[in-house]
């Protein structure tokens, strides 16, 4: 049986319409309809991730190379068997041997920490330093039709914001007579300025998140209206 594109569009439109209403029902409070929608979304997402992991990670990067290594007698067979063993250790279900999974977990945490550190340096810290330096590049500013004073002012704002924000995260403190910890007065003053810049940054981020959520809400409402008008138009 061949399903027409119009029927497929109708089915997907009805499902989208129903799930949108189920999610919007949370406005009335936590209820079974909202939970059903959330459970279905989580289940579908988990199944999709499992399928992607199986066909794009496990099969091409583990199973197929292992089969090829066995058939060709390659020296990479030991490496493949080691990877299989590490993966199997994470799947141990018996309580008295689950501790063996810590070997794989330690390896994953170590590699993840190294990747995160390298990513933070190359993706955040170094670009931030270079951005603060390039803000004073008068040649680049003039190429963008930015005047001398404007370029200096913009660079100064970026530099001051960076220094004050770093000062806010300075945790060096000295013990007072009553046993409490207190930072130096200069550091405390700089940290107060850092709080101002952090507050501005968080406000901008919140505004962006709110605008994105509002855009998604408008899109869903528009989709509902379009579906209802199109559905009724087919019968009127």
Strand content: under 5%
DSSP helical segment count: 7
What spatial order of strands do you see in the largest sheet?
1-2
Q: Helical amount among residues, as a percent range?
A: over 70%
Strand segment count: 2
Uncertain parts: none
Largest sheet: 2 strands, antiparallel
Mean pLDDT: 80
Description:
The chain has 236 residues and is an all-alpha fold. It has 2 domains: 1-89, no CATH class; 135-236, no CATH class. It has 7 helices and 2 strands; from the N terminus they run H-H-H-H-H-H-E-E-H. The protein has helices at 5-24, 32-72, 77-89, 101-134, 138-143, 148-168, 185-233, and strands at residues 174-175, 181-182. It has a two-stranded antiparallel ribbon with strand order 1-2. Helix 3 crosses helix 4. The chain is extended, with a radius of gyration of 28 Å.
Brief write-up:
This protein has helices at residues 5-24, 32-72, 77-89, 101-134, 138-143, 148-168, 185-233, and strands at 174-175, 181-182.
Features of the shown structure:
236 residues
How does the SSE layout of this entry go?
Layout (H helix, E strand, L loop, with lengths): L4 H20 L7 H41 L4 H13 L11 H34 L3 H6 L4 H21 L5 E2 L5 E2 L2 H49 L3
Antiparallel strand pairs: 1-2
């Amino acid at each position: 049986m061949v399903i027409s594109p119009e029927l497929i569009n109708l089915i997907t439109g009805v499902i989208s319409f129903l799930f949108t209403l189920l999610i919007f029902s949370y406005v009335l409070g936590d209820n079974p309809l909202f939970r059903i929608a959330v459970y279905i979304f989580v289940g579908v997402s988990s199944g999709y991730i499992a399928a992607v992991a199986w066909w794009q990670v496990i099969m091409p990067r583990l199973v197929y190379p292992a089969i090829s290594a066995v058939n060709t007698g390659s020296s990479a067979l030991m490496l493949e068997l080691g990877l299989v063993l590490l993966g199997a250790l994470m799947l141990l279900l018996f309580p008295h041997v689950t501790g063996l999974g810590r070997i794989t977990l330690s390896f994953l945490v170590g590699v993840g920490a190294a990747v995160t550190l390298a990513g933070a340096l190359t993706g955040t810290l170094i670009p931030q330093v270079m951005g603060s330096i390039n803000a004073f590049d008068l040649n680049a500013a003039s190429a963008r039709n930015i005047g001398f004073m404007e370029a200096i002012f913009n660079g100064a704002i970026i530099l001051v914001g960076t220094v004050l924000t770093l000062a806010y995260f300075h945790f060096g403190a000295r013990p007072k007579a009553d046993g409490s910890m207190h930072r130096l007065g200069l550091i405390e003053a700089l940290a107060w300025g850092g709080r101002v810049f952090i507050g501005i940054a968080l406000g901008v981020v919140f505004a962006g998140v709110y605008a994105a959520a509002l855009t998604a809400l408008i899109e869903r409402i528009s989709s509902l209206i379009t579906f209802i008008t199109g559905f009724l138009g087919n019968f009127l």
